[in-house]
Amino acid sequence: KQEVTQIPAALSVPEGENLVLNCSFTDSAIYNLQWFRQDPGKGLTSLLLIQSSQREQTSGRLNASLDKSSGRSTLYIAASQPGDSATYLCAVPPTIKAAGNKLTFGGGTRVLVKP
Amino acid sequence: DTGVSQDPRHKITKRGQNVTFRCDPISEHNRLYWYRQTLGQGPEFLTYFQNEAQLEKSRLLSDRFSAERPKGSFSTLEIQRTEQGDSAMYLCASSFPIQPEAFFGQGTRLTVV
User: Fold this and answer.
1) Distance in angstroms (rounded) separating the CA atoms of residues A111 and A19
2) pLDDT (average), residues B72-82
3) Whole-angstrom Cα distance, residue B98 to residue B94?
4) Which residues from B are below 8 Å from A99, CB to CB?
5) Residues B44-54, mean pLDDT to the nearest whole number
6) Between β-strands A10-14 and B65-68, what pairing exists: parallel, antiparallel or unpaired?
7) Residue spans of beta strands (DSSP E) within chain A
8) Residue scoring higher pLDDT (A97 or A85)
9) Rounded distance, CA B52 to CA B23, Å?
10) Among A34, A43, A49, whose Cβ lies nearest the Cβ of B107?
11) Does B31 sit within 8 Å of A101, measured CB to CB?
12) Contacts of B63 (CB under 8 A, 6+ apart)
């Protein structure tokens, strides 16, 4: 059974510092990995999807890397801003494609960027 | 396209009452998913549909829960005889089957008192 872990559970940084968020998964036979952002009391916003054949995916200040062999993904947020304060979640689909695209989520990392 | 829409956004109900939530997916997305999220945790999969067919249900989905997607468009999630443990955020997501990216709605926050 796939398990997804995000450590740390919470992170506080001063504005301008780079953020490094970690995600690990137990079954490396994944097809892709998706990073989401969740503001308090709101739904999830998709940030990046990185395919299993990719090592990196970038969008603006966000960069996600994927190392399947070690079962890890890292989300980097450059030059953090107070508006980046949110919970960041990573998720992976089943390793069997026929099982649909239901996602297994990590517990999230709650980020606070202090002005 | 306005994204995935969920209604209501918030629901407070007394223990023992029935509640129903609605999800309108992104048009042309034929896969629709329901998740439940409790405070401080990541979302947990409940069930998913491809068109009108319910293809999988999690063991989290007890007999008091039922989901439908009658015409392959919107979906409803009903909880009968609500319990305090049902208090959570209920999230809906949709996707194309051949494109892996899932798009989520704003969720319905249920509080059972």
Assistant:
1) 9
2) 95
3) 12
4) 56
5) 93
6) unpaired
7) 4-5, 10-14, 19-25, 32-38, 44-51, 56-59, 62-67, 72-77, 86-92, 104-105, 109-114
8) A85
9) 13
10) A43
11) yes
12) none
Joined together, the tokens standing for residue A46 give 């998709």
B17 CA: distance to closest CA in chain A (Å): 23
Q: Would you state the pLDDT for residue B21?
A: 98
Query: pLDDT tens digits for A58-74?
Result: 999 999 999 999 999 99
Residue B42: closest C-alpha in chain A: A107
In this structure, how many other beta carbons lie within 10 angstroms of the beta carbon of residue B68?
Answer: 14
Q: And the tokens for A38?
A: 């969740």
B91–A43: do the CB atoms touch at under 8 Å? yes
Q: Cβ contact (<8 Å) for A93 and B100?
A: yes
